[in-house]
Predict the structure.
Amino acid sequence: MRHPILFTTLLSPLVLHVSHAQTGGNLSNCKGGCDLGEVCIGNPFSQPVTDAQCNKCAGGQYWWPCNFETLCFCNSIEENAPRAPPAPKSRIKVNELLDPCRDILTEEVFDAIVQPMSEEGKALFTYSGLCNAIAQYNILHDEKFANMGSDVQMRAELAAFLAHTAVDTHGFSVTREEFHCVDPIMGSDGNAYCKPCKEEHYDSGTMTCSQHYFVSEESYKEYCDITRQAPQGCGCDKESVKPVFVPVPVNTNASNVDTNGYIPASDAYFTRGSIQISWNYDYYGASLSMTGNGDILCDNPDLVATNPAYAWGVGLYKWMEKMTFGTMGETAHRQALKMNFGGTVKALYGELECPSNKWDSISHVDMVHDRVAQVCKAGAALGVYLEMDKCETKRDCLECDGLRKIYDSCQELGTCPHCASWVDFVRSVAPTVTPIRIKSPTFDDWNQNYQDRSAADVKALPW
């Protein structure tokens, strides 16, 4: 049963076309029929599909579109009910006893992990923002973030997620893609304005632009895929976003502010978010996932840079729903539940970072190193240990070749200081309690010596 939307009160008002080749019978969320007051509908963001085509899945049809897990799903028949597509299932039970923020990620633990270096980051990547985003996502989806399985699995998922978000946001300090929003101005109208710059004119060291974008272009043409319009992306074109007059705040000396070449930040789909999203289709998918309404982020993508719950929420969308092969494959969420950090890297970043010693991009090699360092930090704070390449079986398990070598190198060279002590931590009763120090455990040691609270014997928690 889908629940009412919270963002309207809490906040403010990669699609791949694959062939109909997946097999395995009826994999849809409508298998066996929908509950009273619900009907099987389509997820056209994923593939071109209609509600009428999906309605047959509830009756037992096993071929397309019913043979794709997230293409058809049960939803309320109420008018204007949110249409939040389902996340791929982990087949692990919801832990109804524990709450991810109240019981696992306390504010004290959060502050030990999330330490923004910029004022913008401090205002955006907040504890309450993350907890609101988690609550909202888990209300709208049967597959829950950081609320499946044992408390060890919940801790592992939080640690892996926060490790990736730390890297993607440069230490929770960057809120908008830097060379697409040079010297942002908050106008007297309360709206943000950005000066886009072409990469060849941007100096990352000084964060300055030697020539603004519109010296050579009449309109802003970036991050708009005109082949992916609603319901597969936000409506956009490459001609309508042009430089505008910026209403400089009255307490600012306008003569000292160069306002040439600025556009409204709300008109551009450049990179933002705790786990990066970009392009018009990514914003549409994230908006559907968080609110059940694709228009919210289409109308104002800059909510991701100004509203904490949206900043964190788009990261949850990528984490829970980005599949390795478009509408098939693994997700970071499912790999984290397997305690497999390398699998989360592979699911999110694919060939960009796996093999992790690949030298196609020096920046991505550095990012992989930082991911290892950050998971050590987050894992220690949350009192949980994840493997770099844990695959008990090859089925449904992803490996990031070379990640273990980077981790071992960190240990030997001391370039990841948190990793030196991470494996010495055994979770005690609460993550804020001083941990016991032992010799470095293997994953098998962890399972044999730690009694966790499983989801099998927990009681319901009132939401």
Summary: The CA atoms of residues 3 and 140 lie 6 Å apart. Confidence is low (pLDDT under 50) at residues 1-24, 426-443, 445-463.
